[in-house]
């Protein structure tokens, strides 16, 4: 059996307290330790340590390996025991007591083996006690320091985070301001300056602005109450000017709503009429008068589904199937017409006895879906300079169709054969500017480049235009709330239609191309449906209806009716030679359905160029696109007109040289070379100067033909130019489109070798057209009064004095004169 000593040793090893230490009386084992320790000789240092109060330094020194002796050892043991207990309690209270008690219990193992063991045990006990005290003291101080350090670290981290957040917020504000400014600038340019193809850019900018707004809104709302009044004011003005978020959430929501509306404005303009049509294609109807002559009139209508599905069925003998009878009614309506008898004294007696209720049967109209429900008909066998009216009637029951709602009137042109006779019978001074029965005095207008809803007006936005009209604002003719608004036509109607009582102020309008913009700002592709949609959008415009319902409109296409800078041999520089663009056929077909079919028929069948005559003046309308060669073709083969059309033009000049006083050549692109300056992108590539040989060949002939005036468009500017002192050109555009704020003319003075001189250059203005008042009543002084109108106001006037036309002479005299002129000995000039 183990004795008491072994039990106590076991207990010490388990971490218990010695029995003697627990009651304060020394045990036998302790006495034996003292006696053993007395045998060890004392050192001087030990004696001094026992006689003096031990300082922490001496304790450390003792713990460093100098053993105590005698009573000092006994006192040290007791002191160590007490200190150990206190340290243990203290460590236990601070750290849970587990680690300290375990250290003491496992370290202090008293044994009676030897004095050296006792000394070693005592030293270990002292060192452990001291370390426990130090650990306890260290931990007491570290806890407070740790809390302070953590608090400082958190504060520093929060400060750094706050500074970083403020820095990032400033960066986001700057970036948001840049994005908002770009968004507003891009939309402003697209809606008011130039219709850009910038849908992707606008959407990206708006999405970026929205994302930044959401981030800043969550961070700014917590600091909004801390901002001072001055800071709020500065923030508000920055928000208004640059679109950045402010310290007020209300202002931020207003800014977000503003930029959202700005983006919606752009989308409304960009996708109109493709996604936001202001009409229904199945009920869009119009009826107008196209080309007129002294003896005929061309009627042009669009009438979708003129008859509802009939109850009757049609028995097809081939397959025995019953079909809807209306499918076989390809000509459901016809034109009926009659002469207008305002006063019986104005017409001969034979015509006056005719019943005014009588209508004459006119031609049938073929209306079908394959022509987008458009059709033309020719009323012929009419009297010159006579007023007529017409309507549509159903064929199956001879009743009036609802289109047009009332009779449409027109006046045939005067007989040109009477021009010379009337010059000898009438005074050359009358107050009538546009007498309908005078072939020697009339007025017409010319313009080009039409884009509905440009410049864009915020009042026409679909979200609230109906609300504004409910208060009687902007709903009248030309009102700002109208969709498909064409301000140029409204201004023209106010001057030429509304301001006159009976007949319009002009006899016809020449539209010189770009009547639609198929590729600006959004291109739907080379599909006939997309082109037809744009023409329907044009004819659905109340602004255009005010003109075409009263004035015949004749026209020729330019490039934007198909794609930009196209030719019959290729799509600008984008395709190989002899490869017409894919959009050529659908674009020209749609143009023919809505514009071309109402023109004067070409003398060469399917060609688009044509000529006509009004009184003492002759017109040749040039097709400057279909027959031009590819831009890559150089040399003698390079041509704009093509061989056939150039021959037609020269033959026409020969026919009218001695029969018409003024000869007007109508071309969609400028003939002059003054455009193409350093800031002009394509003026020298798309107009007549790009085909120098063709241009020179025509100009060499024109300089010997008296009184030639060229009328052109396309450049979105006005210019009057004299070439070789004998040929004048007036180029006018746009009617309703952007104008170029920079100057694209090459120079302002003489251009060699054609001796071109600027007479007038007017580049500014969204709405331009030119009126030509032709007056040849005085055979010795024929004149053309030219008036340029910009934004509805007269901007420039000039009177062109022509040369008297010499009628055909004897064969010998005329040949001699022609040879001299062709040899260059006697060129004709505008100015003496």
TrEMBL record:
Molecular function, one GO term: alkaline phosphatase activity
EC number: 3.1.3.1
Cited InterPro entries: Metallo-depent_PP-like, PhoD-like_MPP, PhoD-like_sf, Phospholipid_Metab_Enz
Region (Disordered): 1-103
Transmembrane parts of this sequence: 195-216, 251-271
Positions with biased composition (Basic and acidic residues): 1-10, 51-60
Enzyme class (EC, first level): hydrolase
One Pfam family this sequence matches: PhoD
Swiss-Prot/TrEMBL keywords: Hydrolase, Membrane, Transmembrane, Transmembrane helix
Compositionally biased spans, kind Polar residues: 93-103
Domain PhoD-like phosphatase metallophosphatase: residue ranges: 506-749
Record's keyword annotation contains Transmembrane: yes
This protein's name: Alkaline phosphatase
């Amino acid at each position: 059996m183990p004795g008491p000593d072994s039990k106590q040793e076991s207990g010490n090893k388990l971490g218990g307290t010695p029995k003697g230490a627990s009651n304060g009386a020394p045990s036998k084992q302790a006495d034996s330790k003292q006696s053993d320790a007395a045998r060890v000789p004392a050192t001087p240092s030990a004696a001094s340590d026992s006689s003096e109060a031990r300082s922490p330094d001496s304790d450390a020194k003792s713990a460093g390996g100098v053993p105590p002796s005698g009573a000092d050892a006994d006192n040290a043991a007791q002191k160590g025991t007490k200190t150990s207990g206190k340290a243990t309690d203290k460590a236990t209270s601070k750290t849970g007591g587990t680690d300290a008690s375990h250290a003491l219990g496992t370290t202090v193992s008293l044994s009676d083996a030897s004095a050296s063991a006792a000394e070693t045990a005592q030293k270990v006990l002292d060192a452990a006690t001291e370390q426990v005290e130090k650990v306890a003291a260290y931990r007491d101080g570290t806890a407070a320091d740790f809390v302070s350090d953590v608090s400082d670290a958190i504060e520093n981290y929060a400060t750094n985070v706050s500074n970083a957040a403020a820095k990032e917020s400033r960066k986001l504000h700057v970036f948001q301001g840049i994005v908002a400014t770009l968004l507003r600038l891009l939309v402003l340019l697209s809606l008011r300056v130039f219709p850009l193809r910038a849908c992707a850019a606008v959407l990206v900018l708006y999405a970026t602005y929205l994302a930044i707004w959401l981030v800043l809104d969550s961070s700014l709302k917590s600091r909004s109450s801390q901002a001072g009044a001055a800071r709020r004011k500065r923030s508000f003005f920055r928000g208004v000017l640059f679109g950045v978020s402010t310290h007020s959430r209300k202002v931020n929501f207003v800014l977000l709503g503003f930029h959202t509306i700005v983006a919606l404005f752009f989308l409304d303009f960009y996708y109109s009429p493709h996604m936001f049509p202001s009409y229904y294609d199945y009920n869009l109807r119009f009826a107008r008068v196209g080309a007129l002559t002294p003896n005929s009139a061309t009627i042009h209508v669009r009438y979708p589904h003129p008859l509802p599905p009939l109850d009757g069925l049609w028995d097809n003998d081939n397959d025995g199937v019953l079909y809807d009878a209306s499918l076989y009614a390809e000509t459901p309506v016809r034109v009926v017409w009659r002469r207008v008898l305002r006063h019986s004294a104005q017409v001969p007696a034979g015509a006056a006895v005719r019943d005014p209720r009588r209508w004459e049967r006119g031609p049938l109209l073929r209306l079908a879906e394959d022509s987008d429900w458009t059709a033309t008909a020719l009323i012929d066998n009419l009297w010159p300079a006579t007023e007529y009216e017409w309507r549509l009637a159903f064929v199956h029951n001879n009743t009036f169709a609802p289109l047009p709602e009332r009779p449409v009137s027109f006046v045939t042109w005067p007989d040109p054969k009477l021009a010379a006779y009337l010059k000898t019978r009438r005074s050359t001074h009358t107050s009538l500017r546009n007498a309908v029965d005078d072939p020697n005095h009339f007025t017409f207008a010319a313009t080009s480049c039409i884009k509905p809803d440009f410049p864009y007006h915020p009042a026409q936005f679909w979200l609230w235009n109906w609300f504004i009209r409910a208060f009687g604002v902007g709903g009248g003719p030309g009102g700002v709330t109208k969709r498909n608004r064409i301000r140029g036509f409204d201004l023209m109607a106010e001057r030429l239609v509304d301001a006159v009582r009976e007949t319009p102020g002009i006899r016809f309008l020449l539209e010189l191309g770009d009547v639609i913009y198929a590729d600006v700002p959004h291109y739907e592709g080379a599909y006939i449906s997309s082109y037809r949609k744009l023409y329907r959008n044009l004819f659905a415009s109340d602004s255009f209806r005010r003109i075409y319902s009263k004035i015949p409109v004749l026209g020729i296409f330019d490039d934007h009716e198909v794609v930009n800078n196209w030719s019959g041999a290729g799509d600008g520089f984008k395709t190989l030679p002899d490869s017409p663009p894919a959009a050529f056929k659908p674009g020209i077909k749609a143009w023919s359905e809505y514009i071309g079919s109402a023109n004067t028929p070409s003398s060469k069948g399917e060609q688009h160029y044509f000529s006509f005559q009004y009184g003492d003046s002759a017109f040749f309308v040039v097709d400057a696109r279909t027959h031009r060669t590819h831009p890559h073709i150089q040399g003698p083969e390079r041509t704009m007109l093509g061989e056939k059309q150039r021959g037609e033009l020269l033959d026409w000049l020969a026919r009218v040289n001695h029969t018409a006083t003024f000869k007007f050549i109508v071309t969609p692109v400028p003939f002059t070379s003054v455009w193409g300056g350093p800031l002009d992108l394509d003026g020298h590539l798309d107009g007549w100067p790009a085909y120098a040989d063709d241009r020179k060949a025509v100009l060499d002939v024109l300089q010997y033909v008296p009184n030639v005036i060229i009328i052109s468009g396309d450049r979105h500017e006005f210019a009057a130019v004299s070439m070789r002192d004998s040929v004048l050109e007036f180029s006018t555009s746009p009617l309703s489109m952007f104008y170029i704020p920079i100057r694209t003319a090459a120079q302002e003075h003489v251009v060699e070798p054609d001796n071109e001189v600027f007479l007038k250059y007017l580049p500014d203005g969204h709405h331009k057209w030119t009126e030509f008042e032709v007056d040849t009543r005085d055979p010795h002084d024929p004149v053309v009064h030219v008036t340029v109108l910009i934004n509805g106001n007269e901007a420039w006037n000039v009177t062109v004095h022509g040369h008297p036309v010499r009628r055909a002479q004897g064969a010998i005299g005329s040949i001699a004169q022609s040879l001299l002129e062709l040899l260059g000995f006697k060129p004709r000039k505008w100015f003496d």
